[in-house]
Amino acid sequence: MIAGSDPQTELDRLTRWQDWAPAITPGEYQARLAKARALIGAAGADALVVNAGPSLTYFTGVRWSPTERLVALVLPLAGEPVIVCPAFERGSLEAELRIAADLALWEEDEDPVAAACARLGPNARLALDPWLAAGHARRFMDAVATTLDGAPVIDGCRMVKSAAELALMQQAKAMTLEVHKAAARILAPGIRASEVIRFIDQAHRALGASGSYFCAVQFGHATAYPHGLPYDQELEDDQLVLIDTGCRVEGYHSDITRTYAFGRVEPLIAETWALEKEAQAAAFAAVKPGVPCEEIDAAARRVLEAGGLGPDYALPGLPHRTGHGIGLAIHEPAYLVRGDKTPLEPGMCFSNEPMIVYPERFGVRLEDHFYVTQDGARWFTEPQVALDRPFA
């Protein structure tokens, strides 16, 4: 499972994923718009503005990163959706657009917010995407009578995943798990973290993804820093290895972490690894529909505190939340953290990663993802088996 191979041998083993999950259908896009309209009405708004980014992808299929130029969806309670877009980008927009919509095109010397509001009227009540840039949001506030927080509408749609979304996420996570297995096999004394990162990107591409969405490779004491240190390490015998990576399939994310021993490690690391696994299992077992998100975080922390760590965010212990929602964004609502009282519902998807950190010494993070069912939680990927066996 660990070491014994080389990058080229492992890349030669990998071929394009055979069982590719179907893309989101036109009917599902229409259902999303219908649900959003119901939530817009319930919020007392006349329309919703959705900024470029994962929410725009969710409602329209358009994968567009936000920039200073406004690209947005204006979804009214009735009538055609409107896409606001720079006129010179029309062709690129239409190539990805998966819904019927009117286009409000604006030239570089025109006001895009005026184009967005042209059909709404000055007395409109407008729900704004919280991802909207402050400058754009302020201009919308000046253009209409009332603005509201659009998060309840957007999160109310995106937090609960459909069967099609779960299938796309399952594929992404299964692909990344295969990449993790291959990465473990190429480890050898002297290999640099940057070499492993490059291999992981190539391996994701070999399976059909557009490379790694992100990748962190940490050895030894660097594992004590949840997002690593800003220099390239060389792997040594008898070090702890932490690899965290993911890819996207049709925009849906994976995000999996494995922490394992390359050789022999000190007894405290082995004890910490076992406690981490226990905390991850406790968080998983606490999942039931109706349970508030914060209780999952509390379940993991109870295990750690019983083991003498913490409490709260004190170190040694867990320095961050137990988990985050995941879907078209790698981190999205809801969150498994104290204070998030969102009740769990079937179809919600989360990471489960109650990392343990011993400052400046080492850290252990086991991260797998689950989705909520009527009966509890179900893993997308099987958790790590043992400190020296990273895969089932």
Architecture overview:
The chain is globular and about 70 Å long. The termini are close together. 34% of the residues lie in helices and 20% in strands. The model has no long low-confidence stretch (mean pLDDT 97). It has 392 residues and is an alpha+beta fold. Strand 12 and strand 13 (332-336) form a beta hairpin. The protein has two domains: 26-158, Creatinase/prolidase N-terminal domain (Creatine Amidinohydrolase, Chain A, domain 1), CATH 3.40.350.10; 160-379, Creatine Amidinohydrolase (Alpha-Beta Complex), CATH 3.90.230.
Outline of the structure:
The protein is α+β, with helices and mostly antiparallel strands. It has helices spanning 7-13, 26-42, 54-60, 90-96, 112-117, 134-143, 151-158, 163-185, 193-206, 267-285, 293-306, and strands at residues 47-51, 72-76, 82-86, 102-106, 125-128, 146-149, 214-219, 239-246, 248-249, 252-253, 256-262, 323-325, 332-336, 349-352, 356-358, 362-364, 368-372, 377-379. The radius of gyration is 23 Å and the shape is globular.
